[in-house]
Every structure is written in C-alpha cells, then in structure tokens.
Task: inverse folding
C-alpha cells in the first residue's frame, strides 16, 4: 500500500475504510484501496475472501455500511447511471436473460449505453463466432461467457470489471477473455479490474495486485514491486538447529539440521546481510512466484 | 439421519423455514380480511349465498399454497447426481409436497371455520387439492416448453376444475350446494388423477434423469413456431430510451403472461360454449357458460397477477432466502439475483426501472381488459340477437355503473396491486422495522375483533404509502404534481368503489375501497425505493 495515496488524484476507484457484514459474517473490514487510471488491476484471494463483495461495492450493488466508495469520483450507489454508463461488467454468474436471442440482447443492451459502438460489437460477435439468432439458453457455457464479454466491451468502457472471468471455462474461451483485456488496455487510459483464482493469469496481465484475505487487504502494490520484495533463500548453517533462527522479514522457514529454506519479505541486500550475520551460507536464492507469495501470505494471515 | 427421506425432509424444512410460513400467511390474508370485514354483519357463512366467496377463497388458497410448496421444493434435478433411486426422489416430491399442501389447505379452512363460525366443508377442497397437485406433477417436475405447458395446464385446470365446480352444482345451474358428501365417484376420480399423475411423473423424471429428451407433437409444433418467431418477431431495433427498453423487457419476461393466459382461457371458453350451444341447440346454455366462465377467467387473473408478482421475486431474485443454484443448494446473500447482476449493472436509475415495470403492468392489464371487454361485448351482441333476458344472469337491483366500477376495481386495479406490491412487501420484510409488532398486534386484535383485520391492513398500507411518498419526494423520484395526481386518483377510486356498494354496507365498503385505493397507488411510490434497496443491499 506504499504508493496508493500518491496515485489517489488519478484514481478511477477510491475506497476508504470500507466495512461490510452479512448478519454475523464479516465480509469486508476496513478496506482501503486506490486503483489508478490505466492498466490492469488484479484482485486475488481465496474463496469467500471478499473479492466479489468488493467488486459489488464498486458496481454500486452494495451500499457502504461504513467507509466510502468513489468510482470516477462519484458514489456509485447515489449516481448509478453516471457511473455504470462508464463501466463494462462481467459477473461470475454470467446471468443474462436466457430467453433472449444474441441479437436481441445486443439491441436491448445497446439502448442503455450512448457510447455503444455497433461496428465494434458486430466485429466482436463475428470474432466470438456467435450466431445472432441463437437463444442464450441454447448456448454453451463458453459461448454465454463470450456474449457477456461482448456486452461488457461493446461500449468501450473506461473501466472494465471482470469478476472471475475464467472460472469454469475452457482454454479457448479463457484466451478470448485475456485477449479482450489486452485489447481494452491498448486503448489509452482505460482500466481493467479483474478477480481471479488463476494466479498465472494475474501474473501474466496485471500491473498492480491486491490480495484479499478474510475481508482485509493483506497486500497491495505494483506486481513487479511485490515480486521483487519476496525471496526464497536456502541457508546452510555451521551448526545444526532444531528450530532455525529468525532473520529479518521471515514469513516462513522450513528445513532440518544444517539446511533451512527461508521465505522472506524485504530488501534483498538487507536479507543477505542478515543471513551473513548468522554465519550462514546462501546455497540457493530464488524469486517467488505470485502463487507462492499468495500461499505464504494467506498462511501467515 | 436414519433414512434418506428424513435427510431430505430435514433439508427441506431447514432451508425453507421462513418461506413455509410466508405462503400460508399470504394465502390466508385476503380470506381473513374479507371474512373478518363481513363478520361484522352477523352473517351466516354456511348459507348458499356465500358459496361463491367460499369457492373463490378455496381456489385462491389452493393456488397460492400449491405455488408455495412448488417453489420451496425447488428443482428435482438437483438430486439427479445423488445416489438416490428415482422412485425415492419422486415419492418425496410427489407425496411429501401433496401432503403438505393438503395439510395447509385443511388448516386454512379450519381456521376460517373457527374464527368466523363458517362451517365450510374441508374434505372436498382437500381432495380437490390433492387431485390437482397429482395431475400437475408430470408437467412441473420436468420443465415443459412454454406453449405445450400452457396447453396441457389449461386442459388439467379445465378437467379438475370442472369436477370441483360441478360438485357444488356451480355449472349445472340448478341450485348451488356445498360439497359435504364425498361420493365413490369423487374418490375414484381423485385416485385415478393421482395415480396417472404419479405414473407419468415417475416416467418423465426417469426419462429426464437419463438425459433423454421427449419430443412430443406440441414440441415439434413449437419448434416450427420458434423458427417462425425467429424470422418475423426478433427484436431487430434498439429503443429510444432505457425506460422503453426495460418496459419491453419486463413485458416479455413477466407481464405478457396475463393477456396470453386470458386469451387462451377465453378462446377455450368460447369454443366449448359454442359447441355446447350447437349440440343442445340452446342459446341459453352457451350464454350462461360464457358468462360464468368469463367471471372465472376474471378471477383467475388475480391468481395470475400473484404469480407474475412472484416471478418478479424469481426473475429479479428479490428474496432474502437461500436459493438453489445449478445442482447444488448454496447459501446466497440477499442481493444475489438470478439475472440481477446483469439488470442491476445496466445504467438505468431505479426510478426509471420502476416506471418501466409499472407501464408494463399497465400494458398487460390493458390488453387482458380489452380481451375481457371483447368477450363481454360479443356476449352482449349474442344476447341481443337472441333476445336473451340479461336479468337471468345479473340481479335486477344492481345498476350497470355499479357493476362496471366493481368489475374495473377488482379485475383491473386489484391485479395491478398484486403484480407490483410484492417488491413493497419484501422492502417491509427486509427492513423489519415495524412488521413483527404489526403482525403480533394484528393477530391479537383479530382474535378479539375480526373486523380489525381490515382496518389494520388499511392503516398499515396507508402508513407505508405515506412513508414511501415522503421518501420519493425527498429523493425527487416523483414531482409534487405527479404525487398530487396519483393520490387524487387513489382517493377517487376509493370513493367510487365505496359508493358502488349498498348504503347499508358502508362499513365494509369503506374498508375494502380504502384498501384497494391505497394498494393501487402504493407501487408508484414504493417500487423505486424497493428497487433502490434491492439493487444496493
């Protein structure tokens, strides 16, 4: 969360101390987040971590029980038309009216968006190989996802919000979705927020990442900064340990006897210096994948 | 759990604990309200004069309770992947649901009898409900395409409904009677209906579970119809405003059902009546059948309007209960809608969405009213051509304007209120501010003074209407001029309806008129708030 305040003036989404409960269940707790204009923002977290609840607050589908949410500088609950008109949204459920035909849902949805690009919509339809006369209920899961994506993209939104866009889809449809994200950010100044369980996707596309766990943001920064700040060292000590000594920034340590593997967060040089102070030899040093970082942080939390 | 059935029963009751109370409550609300109001006159509900009201309430309660049990049971297909025999799951849904519906109907009539000393028969309606339940199961347990479903449902309603009404001598025209004695034929009819229903349900579920699709003749006709629809009736244009687009959407999704069913009912009635008149070479039979069945169709509109209101809950998923999703039962948060994510992500304000929904309801009721008027107009022409004495159908002391006001009020405004007030009630239930004390207070006061139920309802609706109006004005959902116009309309409707009753009935007339007037204008103010609430829960 180091530079969130610096970017707030250029933020598309600004969330301050947002909390939300459903009965006794706490879904979000004191979440503060700033998403800058432009680029891809990945929201990652386990099942029930609060990703969808956070996205629904951005969409104005939940009012803030405490704290505040601003999208394009406006409260999405108070100004749904102004905010939603600039957002393209694809929900995890992909719950579009299944009695409509593809062409009907395109015509119906077009009415709500003055910026709808008919030519672009038609291009997308052809690219996704969607039959305009097919009813939605007769489409496969992947085709229905493509329709949702088309509806979210065709008005060239300033902000594209995709909630678990790849879940349950085959690699071909996932490729379409990822290509759509890339295409959207190719348009200058546009922003993509997407939540996913598939961390390799996030790693490939996101510029910035927020990790959410148990309703709290546990990590939020640029992806390269995050990746640079997590390290895995395998250390060989002169004498064996039953429990290896802690060094600066240790998240987790595993091993036995002389050789121990440390998962650490912090400046690399400082970590190396700390290891040398303990008279340990660095046998191996690797950067952590986003997957490792996620597991490390969630386990620690 | 000792048995699979016990586990399924536990899951059913645990999942639906509140909804199971809601449907009998809604089913009993109107009968208790009307009977409570009437009981202030020391009338004898057991007399033949009240057989029409009794039949209406039995049909209404049966429909609401039946819909409630079906909705709470959910789809049988979610058990397909469980290691259960098809017979076990069909038995649970078929017999369990039927027993529950029958018990709820028996309890409802027993409550009316106890509260209002009505002495109405219970066994007949229960037998009718079980037969109707059994007959409908093959159609409902495995989804049937719309047109085939409507045709088959119409045939079932016509068959079982004819049997039920004929037991009260309602259709024969030689003096109406309560159905106190169940004959051997009645038992045989019910047993046959249930057995055939059970066998067909089992067969259809087995077929469906094994992944086979049944292509009936009507399905083939529908496929051809679908191709024709695709060619000529596909939406190929955009709309000039989001309001118009959403009005089209709501009409297509929900309210279209009312004129469609009305059209099918009236078409069937006219065909049967003309056939009977021609067969017997007697105009009187045809005219009487059309007159009484048109009234039944008008009454059926109320049930359809209720169903449309419930579809609003299903379609927009306005329900705080736990819902079914796919094969599994999952706990869902209040604002997770079936298509709600899509609908509520569209840039349309709740005010415009509410207006679109109200306009779609008005279109729908307008279309069905036109059909009913056409039917009555043709009937009037038939009577004029054959010099039929209209006073054999209508009592001579009732003026035409009184009939028109009562007809318009109950068959135009009441369906409108039923269609659009579901959202309002979910708003109240979800807010949970004053509903529990209101219900407890009402129950206590009804026990002491039955007429209070009517007054309590009027007071509650008036309170809610005032609250919603103030909120809407604050939020600028409506202009002061529009507010004044809508309230004036409500007052005029109430006064006109009150005046159409006999002067000596002023007490009941004022309660009914005020209830209907307030319920009719309530959605204009409550719907924008309810939509805003459900969108942003």
Result:
């Amino acid at each position: 969360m180091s530079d969130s305040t610096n970017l707030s003036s250029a933020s598309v989404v600004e969330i301050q101390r947002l909390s939300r409960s459903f009965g006794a269940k706490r879904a979000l707790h004191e979440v503060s987040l700033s998403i800058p204009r432009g680029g891809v923002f990945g929201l990652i977290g386990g099942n029930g971590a609060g990703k969808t609840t956070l996205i629904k607050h951005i969409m104005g589908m939940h009012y803030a029980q405490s704290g505040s949410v601003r999208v394009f500088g406006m409260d999405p609950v108070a100004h749904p038309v102004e905010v939603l008109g600039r957002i393209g949204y694809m929900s995890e459920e992909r719950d579009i009216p299944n009695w409509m035909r593809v062409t009907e849902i395109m015509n119906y949805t077009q009415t709500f968006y003055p910026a709808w690009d008919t030519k672009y919509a038609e291009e997308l339809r052809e690219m996704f190989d969607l039959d305009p006369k097919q009813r939605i209920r007769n489409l496969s899961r992947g085709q229905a996802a493509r329709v949702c994506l088309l509806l979210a993209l065709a008005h060239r939104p300033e902000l594209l919000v995709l909630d678990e866009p790849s879940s349950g889809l085959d690699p071909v449809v996932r490729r379409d979705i990822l290509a759509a994200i890339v295409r959207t950010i190719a348009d200058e100044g546009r922003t993509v927020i997407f939540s996913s369980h598939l961390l390799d996707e996030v790693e490939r596309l996101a510029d910035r990442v927020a990790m959410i766990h148990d309703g709290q943001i546990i990590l939020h920064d640029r992806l390269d900064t995050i990746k640079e700040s997590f390290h895995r060292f395998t250390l060989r000590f002169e004498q064996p340990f039953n429990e290896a000594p802690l060094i600066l920034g240790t998240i987790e340590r595993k091993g036995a006897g002389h050789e121990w593997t440390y998962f650490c967060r912090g400046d690399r040089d400082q970590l190396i210096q700390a290891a040398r102070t303990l008279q340990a030899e660095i046998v191996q040093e690797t950067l952590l994948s986003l997957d490792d970082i996620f597991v490390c942080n969630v386990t620690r939390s | 759990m000792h048995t699979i059935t016990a586990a399924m029963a536990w899951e059913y009751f645990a999942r639906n604990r509140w909804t199971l109370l809601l449907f009998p409550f809604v089913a009993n609300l109107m009968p208790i309200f009307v009977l409570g109001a009437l009981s202030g006159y020391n009338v004898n509900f057991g007399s033949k004069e009240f057989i029409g009201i009794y039949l209406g309430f039995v049909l209404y309660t049966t429909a609401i309770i039946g819909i409630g049990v079906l909705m709470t049971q959910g789809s049988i297909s979610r058990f397909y992947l469980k290691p259960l025999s098809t017979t076990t799951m069909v038995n649970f849904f078929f017999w369990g649901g039927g027993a529950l519906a029958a018990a709820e109907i028996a309890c409802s009539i027993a409550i009316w009898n106890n509260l209002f000393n009505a002495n109405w028969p219970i066994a007949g309606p229960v037998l009718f409900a079980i037969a109707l339940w059994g007959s409908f199961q093959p159609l409902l347990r495995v989804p049937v395409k719309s047109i085939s479903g409507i045709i088959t449902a119409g045939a079932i309603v016509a068959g079982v409904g004819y049997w039920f009404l004929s037991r009260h001598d309602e259709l024969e025209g030689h003096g109406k009677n309560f159905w106190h004695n169940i004959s051997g034929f009645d038992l045989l009819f019910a047993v046959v209906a249930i057995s055939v229903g059970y066998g067909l349900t089992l067969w259809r579920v087995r077929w469906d579970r094994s992944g086979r699709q049944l292509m009936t003749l009507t399905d083939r006709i529908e496929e051809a119809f679908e191709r024709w629809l695709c060619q000529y009736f596909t939406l190929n244009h955009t709309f000039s405003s989001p309001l118009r687009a959403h009005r089209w959407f709501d009409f297509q999704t929900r309210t279209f059902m009312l004129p469609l069913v009305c059209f099918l009912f009236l078409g069937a009635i006219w065909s049967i009546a003309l056939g009977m008149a021609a067969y017997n070479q007697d105009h009187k039979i045809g005219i009487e059948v059309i007159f009484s069945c048109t009234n039944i169709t008008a009454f059926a509109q109320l049930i359809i309007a209720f169903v449309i209101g419930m579809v609003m809950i299903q379609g927009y998923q306005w329900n705080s209960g736990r819902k079914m999703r796919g094969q599994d039962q999952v706990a869902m948060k209040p604002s997770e809608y079936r298509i709600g994510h899509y609908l509520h992500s569209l840039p349309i304000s709740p005010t415009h969405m509410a207006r679109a929904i109200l306009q779609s309801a008005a279109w729908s009721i307008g279309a069905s009213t036109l059909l009913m008027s056409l039917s009555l107009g043709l009937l009037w022409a038939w009577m004029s051509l054959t010099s039929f004495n209209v006073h054999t159908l209508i009592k001579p002391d009732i003026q035409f304007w009184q009939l028109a006001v009562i007809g318009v009020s109950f068959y135009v405004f009441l369906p409108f209120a039923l269609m659009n007030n579901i959202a309002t009630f979910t708003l109240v239930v979800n807010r949970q501010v004053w509903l529990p004390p209101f219900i407890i207070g009402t129950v206590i006061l009804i026990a002491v003074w039955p007429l209070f139920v009517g007054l309590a309802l009027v007071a509650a609706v008036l309170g809610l209407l005032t609250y919603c109006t103030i909120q809407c004005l604050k939020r600028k959902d409506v202009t002061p001029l529009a507010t004044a116009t809508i309230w004036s309309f409500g007052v005029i409707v109430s006064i006109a309806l009150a005046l159409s009753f006999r002067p000596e009935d002023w007490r009941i007339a004022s309660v009914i008129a005020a209830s209907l007037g307030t319920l009719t204008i309530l959605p204009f103010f409550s719907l924008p708030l309810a939509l805003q609430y459900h969108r942003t829960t």
